[in-house]
Amino acid sequence: MKLIIFGPPGSGKGSYASRLEPKLGIKRIATGDVYRDEMKRGTELGKKVTDYYKKGELVPDDITIEVLRKKLKEVNENNFILDGYPRTVEQAKALEKIVKIDAIILILTHEEILIEKTQARRICSNTQCDGNYNLADIRKTVDGVEYELPALLPKKDMICDKCGSKLYQRDEDTNLELIKKRLKVYEKQSKPVIDFYKGKVPFINIFMNRPPDQLVERILQGLKNLKLIK
């Protein structure tokens, strides 16, 4: 099964994709994780990506497409979920030449919720681990949508439950203006991509107003409705 999960920064795409991975027996491919690993190791690619991250800009298509091709060769090309790709129409066109996507999971939510969750996010410092936590306990109604998003806390303060490594807050998650800029960039870039796929690939629209496990169940039901799983 070949899936894409779309959603703005802070919408929890990584958490949902990580939970779907074992349930569906698929491999999560997150370009953002690849970039952050390259930045930590100080590679040439990492240095290039750092400049774009500091400006709140998207990494150019040629670099992103190169990274995707490399990752797809490392996994089963017929069994994956893409997290953070494609972000532009050019990336979508390049992907279309490589594989045919079975379904797109689209995460929807309000900006003020995204900002609150992004600033409260903490992730594992081990690049081989997908530990992802959030300190925010959100219980409010926005534009008629009731949000119940309890904090996702580690058992030990600032220590990952999965591997025991320290948790940290990404620099880009501390800057409010940068967060807002990233959301605007996503909105501007994502609409043409979503329009590109409409009519070509079925969508599963999910509102991010409940904890990850409940949203994953909604996604699984959506896949069942499309007869992609039993």
Description of the molecule:
The chain has 230 residues and is an alpha/beta fold. The chain has a domain at 2-110 and 175-225: P-loop containing nucleotide triphosphate hydrolases (Rossmann fold, 3-Layer(aba) Sandwich), CATH 3.40.50.300. It has helices at 13-24, 31-41, 44-55, 61-74, 89-98, 111-119, 176-197, 212-225; strands spanning 2-6, 27-30, 80-83, 103-108, 121-124, 132-134, 138-142, 145-149, 167-168, 203-207. Helix 1 crosses helix 8 (212-225), helix 4 runs parallel beside helix 5 and helix 6 crosses helix 7.
* CATH homology-level superfamily of the domain at 2-110 and 175-225: P-loop containing nucleotide triphosphate hydrolases
Q: State the name of the first-level CATH class of the domain at 2-110 and 175-225.
A: Alpha Beta
Tally of strands: 10
Return the average pLDDT rounded to an integer.
Answer: 90
